[in-house]
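Bench log. Compound arrived from synthesis this morning; before running ITC I wanted a structural hypothesis for how adenosine-2'-monophosphate sits in the protein. Inputs:
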Amino acid sequence: MISLELLCQDVVELCREVGIFIKMEESKVHREDIETKSKNSLVSYVDKTAEQRLVANLAKFIPEAGFIAEEGTSDKVGDVYNWIIDPLDGTTNFLHGVPTYSVSVALKRNDEVVIGVVYEVNRDECFYAWEGSDAFLNGNKIETNSTSNLSDSLIATGFPYYDYTHLDGYFELLKNLAKNTRGIRRIGSAAVDLVYMACGRFDVFFEYSLHAWDVAAGAFIAQQAGAVIEDFKGEGNWLFGKEIVAINPQLRVEFSNLIKKHLN
Ligand code: 2AM
Ligand code: CA
């Protein structure tokens, strides 16, 4: 019987180690190390090496588990357990010398996420939770904010950078939010947006066309911290559905109506 609490502690240690490796490479990585996977999707040897280290160590924790990993290090599919990995979330920031990026690891059991760890490297902040637990930041319990007015809320999002399907509706929504909230932030790592939501720094996060590895760990942590996580229809298909809203329960109805108006 796996102890998810102990396993989560092991994953925290591993993400910290991999984060230290990424940080050490920050000053060494050059423009010629950058490869373009697809439009605006960048990668370097740092993402790939970090992922190889994660996969090699996670495979020791649960030998039968499979992997859904951004850089494709392993295509093993687990019957019950699968790790969902983004070795470096915020690669564009990292390669441009902007400090917000993270290591993101989740464990999925059947269809449910049961462990989430997000390590924001430059702030040395490790966020984590396991099935049934509270959510934690460096050992301290965190909770979402209980702001009940959008006018008092700080909103996080990611601007579309390759999928422009909802561009008009998206910017109409931003216009509305620019007028009716405290402000909008785009910090460039969805995993970090979600854990900032978890600890009450942000009140709402939404984005479309994200992958499971961008959101699995952060959304699970936010959920354990009290956030509602849903897709743009207000349903539960956020992990593989490429649409996500993370929100505190008090703002849910008001914000869901805006999403439905502009993005459906
Ligand atoms: P990545 O760094 O792991 O690719 C935010 O919009 C999310 O989209 C990030 O979590 C980031 O994950 C991904 N992303 C990929 N390319 C991007 C780009 N050019 N600009 C912004 N985000 C990008
Ligand atoms: Ca990545």
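What the model suggests: The radius of gyration is 18 Å. The pocket of adenosine-2'-monophosphate (ligand 1) is lined by residues 40-41, 70, 86, 89-92, 158, 161, 188-190, 207, 210, 214 (CB under 6 Å).
ITC booked for Thursday regardless.
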